[in-house]
Write a structure and sequence with these properties.
heterodimer, A: 155 residues, alpha/beta, Rossmann fold, five-stranded parallel sheet, two-stranded antiparallel sheet, 5 helices, 7 strands, 18% strand, B: 503 residues, alpha+beta, Beta Polymerase, domain 2, Cytochrome-c3 Hydrogenase, chain B, 3 domains, five-stranded mixed sheet, three-stranded antiparallel sheet
Chain lengths: 155, 503
């Protein structure tokens, strides 16, 4: 953890070798935005950042996930999908909103097709602001989550 | 078709028929009556006039064509009792637009090829939300109305939440016993945010800010297309520096998005080295954009109006040099990664989009050019020179052709960046503003079109057309016959973004 923080404060470089910080399985749901935040999350998953090597794995089913990572404003059509993903996750799970849209709707507030952000609708364990947040900011937000859950995960 | 005795002899061409209508916005939008519209639909059966997009503004239905392949020409008709004669029997590319209009405004297309809902899954707060009289919603929503599946086929659905880092969409495949796709169908609408409705009421700067957040991979294209539409409506032309920086930013975005799409197709194709190389180069470009231009995805970098922002023009020039250097130094490694023989076996002949299908369904951009279509709107965009557009087309129409064309266009981007930085661009001719405008841009994935009506400095009505809608329809054809394990790779090779299809 301390090592990860040290790297972050030194300035995040692409293709950096992150130290192992324990494991975190993340299920990512894009709930209907412009895909910008999703592209920055994808960058973390790719070779430039290689976050999976640092222990943060992206999984393709909520049943294996510890963290539900949400990008984009919550559209009315995606609300049941997101709810199903949340209930499909095993207990001791966390909800993370990445980007302005997922937090409060950003430029896509409530209308006939959109509910808005998650803030006020669901208890968020972390929210990472930005439009979109940089990969470094997303890593910092996820690292904060690991730090917060460290005592309980070691128990 | 009957020729009325008292009328002029019927013009032979569809464009001539449109021009017989009443001019409403300059000499490019004409109002037709119901008979005129019917004659137009009849004429389109034989006339190859290219169709671009179809939309409504609450009162009228508008269809945009490209006369002679370069001059925007709009035909408008007022639906009678909420019904108008559909274009999809003569222009299959119009089918998804007709379905969107039915969902948003309740205008139904007569004789349409397909009248099922496209965007509305029954979960909105109203039916026909943009019409004068939105209707109530039935609860529970009706189950989706999928096309019947061939007998003895197994259904395999994926999405909208599959853990992938992309906009939500549901793809429903019918597989035969051997694992080949017998039928493919999308269910979209999950990412519909009501962009057209949100644009209404915004001032020019606010509208362009929103346009930058419609599709992140084509942010510059959407911003520039809307700027050009607004400038067309208000009779203002961008100055030389602004014209040049729009070209530079658009090419930088093309490089970044091509690299993203290449890495997305290389992963499922098993070409990890190519994917990794693309991801590294893209990250270097984005990092530079964030550092120099202030935004990694180039949002809020393009502004409307005559005189631009000199600081942004300098930043664009500085970014352009850096990106051209990066692309040139990466070229050899990308070519080596592409030459890996296993990749060729995996992608050659897979996911073929025939040229005829591409033309019928209006697929342009990289995908259209990889199927032999000479479609590149950059020839219409001010600031470009035709001799810069040298990456050509590919005839194969398969995944390999789309990969190769993207790599070739990366090289072309570097050359355009060098050439545009060192030359004085041609500036668009100024037309008198008539309160309505059309603007376009060749985005990384294809043509982006905007139409706006401006009243008192604010957007009164707008339409956005992203290439993703046509790509989604084309994929339903391309996937038939493919092996189930190739589906992800074929879909990624289109660079499809549901964010652009749903809007």
């Amino acid at each position: 953890m301390a090592l990860l923080r040290a790297i972050l404060t030194r300035g995040f470089r692409p293709a950096i070798r992150l130290p192992a910080v324990g494991t975190m399985a993340v299920f990512h749901v894009e709930t209907g935005g412009c895909e910008g935040c999703a592209m920055e999350v994808a960058a973390l998953d790719g070779a430039a950042y290689a976050l999976p090597r640092a222990g943060v794995r992206f999984v393709t089913t909520p049943r294996l996930a510890d963290v539900l990572l949400v990008t984009g404003p919550l559209t009315r059509a995606m609300a049941p999908v997101l709810e199903a993903a949340w209930h499909g996750m095993p207990d001791r799970k966390a909800l993370v909103a990445v980007g302005a849209c997922a937090i409060d709707g950003g430029p896509f507030g409530e209308n006939y097709a959109v509910l808005g952000g998650l803030e006020g609708r669901a208890p968020l364990d972390a929210s990472i602001p930005g439009c979109p947040p940089s990969p470094a900011a997303i890593v910092a937000g996820l690292a904060g989550l690991l730090g917060a859950s460290e005592p309980s995960s070691s128990a | 078709m009957t020729v009325r005795a008292d009328a002029d002899p019927l013009p032979r061409t569809a464009a001539g028929l449109i021009r017989r209508g009443e001019a409403e916005a300059g000499a490019w939008r004409f109002r037709l009556d119901e008979d005129g519209w019917r004659d137009l639909v009849e004429a389109l059966r034989h006339d190859p006039l290219p169709f671009v997009t179809l939309w409504a503004d609450g009162r009228d239905v508008h269809a945009l064509f490209l006369d002679g392949g370069e001059r925007p020409l709009v035909a408008s008709v007022e639906p009678y009792g909420g019904r108008y004669l559909g274009l999809s029997p003569v222009r299959p590319a119009a089918a998804p637009f007709e379905r969107c209009m039915q969902d948003l405004w309740g205008f139904s297309a007569m004789d349409a090829r397909d009248s099922r809902p496209w965007l509305d899954q029954g979960l909105w707060s109203a039916t026909w939300p943009l019409s004068d009289r939105p209707g109530p919603v039935a609860w529970p929503p009706e189950p989706p109305d999928f096309r019947p599946v061939p007998a003895d086929h197994m259904i395999l659905g994926s999405g909208p939440a599959d853990g992938g880092h992309h906009a939500p969409g549901h793809l429903r495949l019918a597989l035969d016993g051997g694992g080949a796709v017998g039928q493919a169908e999308w269910r979209l609408g999950y990412a519909h945010r009501g962009v057209a409705a949100r644009l209404s009421g915004l001032d020019a700067a606010g509208a362009v800010r929103l346009a930058g957040r419609v599709v992140a991979g084509a942010s510059v294209a959407h911003q520039s297309a809307l700027c050009r539409a607004i400038e067309n409506a208000t009779g203002q032309a961008a100055d030389i520096a602004t014209t040049r920086s729009r070209v530079l930013l658009a090419e930088i975005e093309r490089a970044a998005t091509h690299l993203l799409d290449l890495s997305r197709v290389a992963r499922p194709a098993g070409a990890g080295a190519l994917a990794a190389e693309c991801e590294r180069v893209r990250e270097a470009i984005l990092e530079r954009c964030g550092r120099v231009g202030g935004h990694r995805l180039l949002m809020d970098c393009v502004g409307p109006g005559g005189a631009g922002d000199p600081a942004m023009d300098d930043a664009a020039a500085s970014m352009a040099v850096g990106v051209a250097d990066l692309l040139e130094s990466a070229r050899d490694r990308l070519v080596r990664c592409r030459a890996w023989p296993g990749l060729e076996m995996r992608v050659a002949g897979v996911g073929v989009l025939e040229q005829l299908v591409a033309r019928t369904l209006g697929v342009g951009g990289v995908v259209g050019r990889a199927s032999g279509r000479e479609e590149d709107l950059r020839r219409l965009v001010p600031g470009y020179r035709r001799e810069w557009l040298d990456s050509g087309v590919r005839r194969g129409g398969d995944v390999a052709a789309r990969i190769d064309l993207r790599l070739a266009e990366l090289g072309s981007v570097a050359r355009v960046l060098r050439a545009a930085a060192g030359s004085a661009p041609a500036v668009a001719r100024t037309l008198p503003g008539v309160g309505e405008g059309v603007g376009c841009a060749e985005g990384p994935r294809g043509a982006v079109w905007y139409w706006v009506r401006i009243l008192d400095g604010r957007v009164a009505a707008a339409h956005v057309c992203d290439p993703a809608l046509a790509q989604a329809s084309a994929l339903e054809h391309v996937l038939v016959g493919a092996q189930a394990e190739d589906v992800a790779m074929i879909v990624r090779s289109f660079g499809l973004s549901a964010a652009g299809a749903d809007l």
